[in-house]
Amino acid sequence: MSAALAEETIDAFHRGGFHLVQPKGRGHRAGMDAMLLASMVDAKGVVRVADLGAGAGAAGLAVAARLEAAEVSLFEISTEMAGFAERSLALAENARLAGRVRVFEADVTLKGAARNAAGLADDSFDHVIMNPPFNATRDRRTPDALREVAHAMEDGLFEAWIRTAGAILKPGGQLSLIARPQSLAEIIAACGNRFGGLEITPVHARAGENAFRILTSAIKGSRARLELRAPLFMHGPDGHAFLPEVDDLNNGRAAYRRSTKTLR
Prior knowledge:
Elements: H1 3-6, E1 8-13, E2 18-23, H2 32-39, E3 47-52, H3 58-66, E4 70-76, H4 79-90, H5 95-98, E5 101-105, H6 112-117, E6 125-130, H7 145-151, H8 157-168, E7 169-179, H9 184-191, E8 195-204, E9 211-220, E10 227-228, E11 232-233, H10 244-250
Parallel strand pairs: 3-4, 3-6, 4-5, 6-7, 8-10, 8-11
Antiparallel strand pairs: 1-2, 7-9, 8-9
Helix pairs in contact: 2-3, 8-9
Keywords: Methyltransferase, S-adenosyl-L-methionine, Transferase
Protein name: Methyltransferase
Organism: Martelella endophytica
């Protein structure tokens, strides 16, 4: 086995619906967050999706695997992680979706002409998904440089990323993201006048425990008021098995739909 192969794994998601090449023992490895994020894309027919900060491409590939007409663009600043995404698309197991997915090595915080030149074209996507870095700068920093890029949150991150989402979405397009509850105020502030109709779902491991994630969706240009949705529980009171509805989301059998009607 070559050194390169020894440093990566090929992992099945959606019970074999697609496969992902990921770094082994370092960097960010995809899991439930990416699958929940992907489940928030709900569309019939062709839908253009941008995955910002895509990493190895787990969320974007999950969308393409579940929605056969989805066209997905993966935007990732790390050359190495973008390379993992490219190798994932080259896998024979992903042949049915590879033609609908493109990888862009790009900084999603770019502005204006530089942003457009990087593939983040104005008013061109129906749906933007993002799982931004979630560790505050004051948190203990990791010595793993690849993980640091994926997890370290810089000041103003949500403002910069949501600004880009607002620029590249078509009017009426949907933004969906997953984050820590501690980021809620920043997310709402960043949506500002760009997005309305925010729907926020707290995600809990089980009843009686504090939320550890929030799912947030919003519509570009909407003036609808914020809605706090019923919590989503991962597990029942006993054991660690996912509840059936969560297992469906995790394995691409269902979408986590908005409670109010969107354009798509």
